[in-house]
TrEMBL record:
Matches recorded under Pfam families: Nitroreductase (PF00881)
TM regions (residue ranges): none
InterPro entries recorded: Nitroreductase (IPR029479), Nitroreductase-like (IPR000415)
Source taxon at top rank: Bacteria
Name of this chain's protein: Nitroreductase
């Protein structure tokens, strides 16, 4: 029994570390990730649960020239992020309210503070946001889509799949950044990847090795204490 408990504690520590160390990295090294590793991560991630095992995910893995074409199409579109139209689905509420407004502001101020960008330096903020569209220099950029005929339950399943990718990446010493910022630019992305009309662009994700020399990667978000959001009922 003691040996079993020790093994269980050791396994829990490994899983916990993969989850806790997952964060949105916003500067990557150019070191390439081989296709075998990417395939392994995606295969493991696909063990995510889905209603009646529908597996609603579809992934476009991009590198090199194709990834650059996506970046160019968005950055040369002339559509600023604040003017981009969320016409396929809405990620954020039209009006932020508490406690979400405070958390959102803390996240933005914390990131820009780590970069030395002041609250009125709008051009620098925009330039940093535009780094989304080059996948923060990651060697691998993934675009995720879902069939528009599916319902909300499949979107819940999709979230578990995305989390599995990010945790699976950590188990291999890699980092990620999930990026909803790509969704409003589906018109620019579709022709590059030949995405069918029946597929909605859910998000993008950068994948690669963290550049630990960059200040933006020193930023850490916090989490609300359990007492704020957990209810135990007996």
């Amino acid at each position: 029994m003691l040996e079993k408990n020790i093994r269980t504690a050791s396994e829990a520590a490994i899983v916990d570390e993969a989850i806790i160390s997952r964060r949105s990295v916003r500067a990557f090294l150019p070191d390439m990730v081989d296709d075998e590793t990417i395939r392994a991560i995606l295969a493991v991630a696909a063990r995510a649960p889905s209603g009646t095992n529908m597996q609603p995910w579809r992934v476009y893995v991009t590198k090199g020239e194709v990834k650059q074409r996506i970046s160019d199409a968005i950055l040369n579109s002339g559509i600023r992020a604040e003017k981009a139209e969320w016409d396929e689905y809405r990620y954020y509420p039209d009006q932020f309210f508490e406690p979400y407004l405070t958390r959102r502001r803390a996240n933005g101020f914390g990131l820009y503070g780590a970069l030395g960008i002041g609250r009125r330096e709008v051009d620098k903020m925009r330039a940093q946001h535009d780094r989304n569209f080059i996948f923060f220099d990651a060697p691998v950029g993934m675009i995720f889509t879902i069939d528009r005929r599916l319902n909300q339950g499949s979107w819940i399943d999709y979230g578990m799949f995305l989390q599995n990718i990010m945790v699976g990446a950590r188990g291999r010493g890699l980092h990620t950044c999930p990026q909803a910022a790509f969704a409003p630019y589906h018109r620019q992305i579709r022709p590059v990847l030949n995405i069918p009309d029946e597929e909605i662009v859910v998000c993008g994700m950068a994948l690669g090795y963290e550049d630990t020399s960059k200040p933006e990667n020193e930023f850490r978000t916090d989490r609300a204490p359990l007492e704020d959001w957990v209810t135990f009922a007996e």
